[in-house]
Specification:
mainly beta, 8 strands, Immunoglobulin-like, eight-stranded mixed sheet, single chain, 2 helices
Length: 127
């Protein structure tokens, strides 16, 4: 079921952040056959001036295919975006895709009842 049918998608501006990187998980025959990826980026709640704790990764159909948590230090973000005041705005997680698709990242807000899209997307192949 698409993310947009599970919670409210908020307008741009509520959060700031980027889906910076996606890297294939090193080969393990079982994992590689379904396409496992490490994902990372950063996120910030503009309204409440705080780090957002959870991020979901969705495919081009809006289906959740991954999950990430904020925990990583991002000194580059503190330096580059004056709104961000917490060093630990970086998120990292995993995504799994069985087919070639474009991936997007959404920050989960309001006790996971709403989300906002982060900038950046990545096109992947299944193998």
């Amino acid at each position: 079921m698409p993310l947009s049918q599970q919670l409210q998608i908020l307008e741009a501006g509520r959060c700031a952040g980027w889906f910076d990187e996606i890297v294939r998980v090193p080969s393990d025959e079982e994992i590689i056959s379904i396409g496992s990826w490490r994902v990372r980026g950063w996120v910030w709640d503009v309204k409440y001036k705080s780090v957002i704790k959870k991020v979901v990764i969705v495919d081009d159909q809006g289906v959740v295919v991954g999950y990430a948590l904020t925990r990583d230090p991002r000194p580059d973000v503190i330096t580059g975006d004056s709104r961000v005041t917490n060093l630990y705005s970086g998120w990292a997680g995993h995504a799994i895709s069985r087919h070639a698709t474009k991936l997007f990242a959404y920050a989960l807000l309001d006790d996971d009842h709403s989300a906002c899209i982060l900038e950046g997307s990545h096109i992947i192949g299944s193998r």
